[in-house]
Write a structure and sequence with these properties.
131 residues; two-stranded antiparallel sheet; homodimer
Chain lengths: 131, 131
């Protein structure tokens, strides 16, 4: 039964409470994460910045770490997500392949659909939290 | 466009490939995870073992760690998830409250509904993986 959310301390705004529910979707293959939120965020950053270097920097990640994630992702996919033809993985400008863009779109659509499909249950779960 | 999954190396069964997609749902409150897969698994273990000590052991977790997770969870909820009346958090037998059982049920139902609602997209995403 949903519990009404009433702030227990009106005016006590020092510590704003705003619980957030997030779906995180991962495709694992044994111990390895083939596709997960970190790799998708990296693809999105490459799409918006146009380079692995800038994408890594925007995510506060080393170039080496970004490169390793992309290498792992590309090897997990039937077709690579990042185009290495134009400078590509070795530096310089990089762009997503059609498959890379499709992967991002699918991943985000799944997250969104999951939230929409579960809206009532999510509301109920959130109502169980302390206020 | 879905790519047919064909094993590229028939008979090369040394490294079985069985990618698995999982939804992980977390409710965060600032940096703190109020509800997440670890805490839900711990509640389920307490329900099946009847004690925090046994639950912690079954999850390869220290008693101290289990206790801290439960304390954090109970403080996140309007009503505690674990009954501390019968020995409770200090040891001995522990049981879930009605709210604790409701939380598990909601959490698992949300995961399940999300998968059902996203089945087609999930199939499409999985078809992009290397085989």
């Amino acid at each position: 039964m949903p519990v009404k959310r009433q702030p227990s301390q009106r005016g006590a705004a020092k510590r704003p409470r705003a619980p957030v529910l997030r779906f995180r979707m991962r495709v694992t293959d044994g111990d390895r994460i083939a596709v997960g939120p970190g790799k998708i965020a990296l693809l999105e950053a490459i799409e918006s910045t146009g380079s692995i270097t800038a994408a890594a920097k925007s995510l506060d990640m080393s170039y080496r770490r970004a490169w390793m994630l992309l290498d792992e992702l590309n090897r997990s996919l039937a077709q690579p997500a990042v185009d290495s033809a134009k400078g590509g993985l070795q530096g310089g400008g990089s762009s997503l392949t059609e498959g890379g863009r499709q992967l991002i779109a699918l991943y985000r659509r799944i997250e969104k659909r999951a939230e929409v499909a579960c809206r009532d249950d999510i509301t109920q779960l959130m109502s169980m939290l302390a206020r």
